[in-house]
Structure formats: C-alpha cells, structure tokens
Design goal:
- There is one protein chain.
- The protein has one domain.
- Helix content is 54%, strand content 7%.
- The protein has 11 helices and 4 strands.
- Helix 1 runs antiparallel to helix 9, helix 5 packs antiparallel against helix 6 and helix 5 packs across helix 8.
- Bound molecules: zinc ion.
Length: 282
C-alpha cells in the first residue's frame, strides 16, 4: 500500500449521485454528505484491501483479523491521501468514525440485539478505535477530535502510542514486502464489472462511466505492481442484494457492492449536522 497504490472513489460516488439526465449532485446531497459517502466507500475498500493483503501476503496477525483490517484500512486512507493531511482530510476520518457511531446509535434506538459473538469489534468500539487513531495521528493539532467524538481522556492518553504502533506495523510491512524491481508483475488483479442495481439511476450509463474512468483498473494495477502477489486476483463491482463488501480468500476475489455505496449515501442524511470548528492548519 504505497502512496497512490489505492483508489479514489470520488468518481464512483459522482456516478451514483448523478441522475441519468442530470446534474452532478442530486437534490439533498450536500457536499458534506458526499464527503461522508466517499470517505466510507474508501474506507470499505481499504478495509477489504487489508484482508486481501493479509491473506495473499500471509501477513502474521496478532489479535483479531477484523481489527487488523480496520487498522490497515485506516492507514490506507493516509496513503490514499498522501500530502493532503489538512482539515478536510481529518473531517473525512471523522466521517468514517461517525459511520460506526450512527450504526451504534441506531442499534440502541431500535433495540437491536448486539452480536457480541461477532468477529468484528462492536460498532461503538469501532467508532472509538477510529477516533482514537485519528486523534493519535496528530494530537497536538487535533484536540477538536476529542470534543466531537467524546473520546474519554482515559483512552485518549494512549492514542498517540496506538497510532504509532499501527503506523510502525504498516511501515514495517511496506519495507519488507514491496516489490524490489519495477518489471512486469507476475500476477495481476483483474477488474470485472457486473450490472449495477436497476433501482440506481444510470443503468448502463453508470456502468460505462465507471468503466471509462479506469480508476479500478488503476488501483488493481498499482497494487499488483507494489506487491508480489502469489496469484491472479479479481476486483469485482457487483450487485449483491445487500450493502456489503468482502474478500473471498478461496476464490481470491474482492467484492464491492453497489448497494454498499448507496447505503452510505442514504445514511449521510443522518450524520451529525455540526462538529467543532476545524481550523485548517495543514
Ligand atoms: Zn473485514
């Protein structure tokens, strides 16, 4: 996951947000809502790329893989937005945290039983974990993260150390596993597009827009150039019937569902309307 090796999904969100006939943003999708959607789409892909790398590169994992994938996903956002660690970037990180807070609050509101047996951390924990890593990445400048997240000082005290530990692990694997030469990779990641859901505006035009952007092909190529993958893999955009994403380690296929992106877009309307001032200090 070297800088630039991963994907920007802005193009995809613009495509999804664009009615077949029209303007770049549909009514009701504010710039903040679009940022929330893009941020979480990016984090979803980075998280699944984490699973892909763990599996394909046989990375040793201490603790739960889902926690490791979240950490790889979080650091993937830093690599994705290299040189752009400004207020807007940190607002995106909090958009990712806020997604988990929304899911947490929704469960509380609806009385949904919490699957404490699940391999993922609880939504509330994923919220605090992301907020902690965000704050810990630059504690001198990110006091506002503590304010908007409500991260208790008992946890915040150790967040810089938590961030450094994760950053060190990612740096460690990059130094050891990046391909040494710039020749043709032995294996590639093939990008496959299935049809988007019929209820999403755009239909065939949407598919063509995504294909024409070449973005998925770019990330697939860069990932295979960055690491010596042990076999050919697949990155598939498809209709799943649920807002999901996953990496299948048997088939070697990373699936990103159109519905997952649309789900973030729909949820964006429920996100916190205002947060503390975020002065842009670079
Ligand atoms: Zn996962």
């Amino acid at each position: 996951m070297r800088p630039g090796a991963l994907i920007r999904l802005t193009w995809l969100l613009v495509c999804l947000a664009t009615p077949a006939t029209g303007a770049e943003q549909p009514p009701g999708l504010s710039a903040d809502a679009l940022r929330f959607t893009v941020a979480n789409a990016e984090f979803t892909l980075m998280h699944e790329m984490g699973h892909l790398l763990i599996s394909e590169l046989e990375l040793p994992v201490l603790g739960r893989e889902e926690d490791a994938a979240d950490q790889l996903g979080f650091m993937g956002l830093f690599l994705l937005h290299d040189q752009q660690h400004d207020a807007a970037f940190y607002a995106k990180l909090m958009d990712v945290a806020d997604y988990w807070r929304l899911e947490w609050r929704r469960s509380e509101r609806t009385g949904t039983e919490i699957p404490v047996w699940d391999s993922h951390a609880l939504d509330a924990q994923r919220f605090y974990n992301i907020a902690c890593l965000a704050y810990g990445s630059d504690p001198d400048r990110l006091d506002w993260v503590l304010e908007v997240s409500g991260l208790p000082v008992e946890r915040a005290l150790y967040c810089p150390e938590e961030y450094q530990q994760v950053a060190h692990a990612v740096q460690w694997l990059r130094e050891r596993l990046q391909r040494a030469d710039s020749g043709t990779p032995r294996h590639r990641i093939e990008v496959i597009y299935d049809s988007p859901p019929s209820h999403l505006a755009g239909g065939t035009a949407l598919l063509e827009k995504i294909r024409a952007s070449g973005e998925l092909e770019a990330v697939a190529r860069k990932a295979s150039e960055a690491f010596d993958l042990p076999r050919d893999l697949t990155l598939r955009m498809t209709t799943c019937g649920a807002p999901d994403a996953w990496f299948n380690r048997i088939s070697g296929e990373l699936t990103l569902c159109y519905e997952r992106i649309a789900y973030f877009r729909d949820l964006a309307g429920e996100r916190p309307k205002r947060r503390a001032p975020q002065p842009d200090r670079g």
